[in-house]
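Re: [ENG-882] Designed sequences occasionally contain unexpected residues at chain ends

Forwarding the minimal case from QA. Structure tokens:
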């Protein structure tokens, strides 16, 4: 459980694998980096105004990848357990890749949402990925990654695998002149973690209730070191919480 005076806001991206692909999940905390001179202790009216100029930072807090062939019924129940965890309950929204999986999977996710007293801010949101939307999603994700606004908690299980997938993105120009993006398939998957991340960032400019944004005074700290040199995994501000 995360213990903070100011709670975070989260999106949860779900990539639904088919016959040869893993299903994967990515929990992302959305953090507002305030402008210089503004602190999170400022009067609420000033904070609301400052948020318009805040820099959005995306912090990957948890990753999950299911074994090949895991039934969607199992995936849906596992996702529900993640959304119901103390760190996320009532603070998150689930976005899932609905491309090519059929309506039945969405029905499973929505059923879990209803049976658990609407555990997220909004009902599960389907994302249908087209050639153009994928290009936009890759661009948004990679820009945040290169600028240091996409941060992966140190020591996070599967964190290194996610970094590897992001670094393996390939841009291909088709004979028609159109552009496609892909991650070469390996024994560890086909970019499933990166896909879950991109789906979770589909609402990259999403601003939930103002009280749900965690505010950061000053520049974001490097993800590989805490301010005093301690292993940041011992600092709850950087530690990945238990979402199960």
């Amino acid at each position: 459980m995360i213990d903070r005076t100011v709670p975070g806001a989260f999106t949860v991206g779900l990539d639904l694998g088919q016959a040869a692909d893993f299903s994967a999940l990515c929990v992302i905390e959305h953090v507002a980096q305030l402008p210089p001179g503004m602190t999170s202790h400022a009067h609420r009216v000033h904070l609301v105004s400052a948020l318009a100029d805040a820099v959005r930072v995306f912090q990957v807090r948890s990753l999950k990848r299911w074994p090949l062939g895991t039934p969607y019924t199992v995936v849906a129940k596992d996702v529900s357990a993640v959304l119901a965890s103390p760190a996320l309950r009532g603070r998150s929204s689930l976005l899932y890749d609905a491309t090519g999986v059929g309506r039945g999977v969405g029905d499973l996710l929505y059923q879990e949402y209803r049976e658990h007293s609407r555990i997220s801010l909004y009902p599960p949101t389907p994302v249908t990925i087209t050639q153009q939307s994928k290009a936009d999603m890759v661009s948004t994700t990679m820009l945040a990654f290169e600028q240091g606004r996409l941060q992966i908690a140190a020591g996070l299980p599967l964190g290194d695998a996610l970094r590897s997938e992001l670094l393996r993105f390939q841009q291909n120009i088709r004979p028609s002149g159109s552009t496609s993006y892909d991650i070469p398939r390996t024994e560890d998957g086909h970019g499933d973690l990166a896909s879950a991340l991109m789906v979770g960032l589909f609402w990259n400019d999403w601003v939930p209730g103002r009280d749900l944004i965690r505010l950061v005074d000053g520049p974001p700290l490097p993800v590989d070191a805490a301010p005093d040199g301690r292993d940041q995994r011992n600092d709850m501000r950087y530690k990945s919480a238990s979402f199960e």
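QA comment: On inspection the terminal residues look reasonable. Confidence is low (pLDDT under 50) at residues 1-7, 206-213, 217-242. Proposing we downgrade this to a documentation issue.
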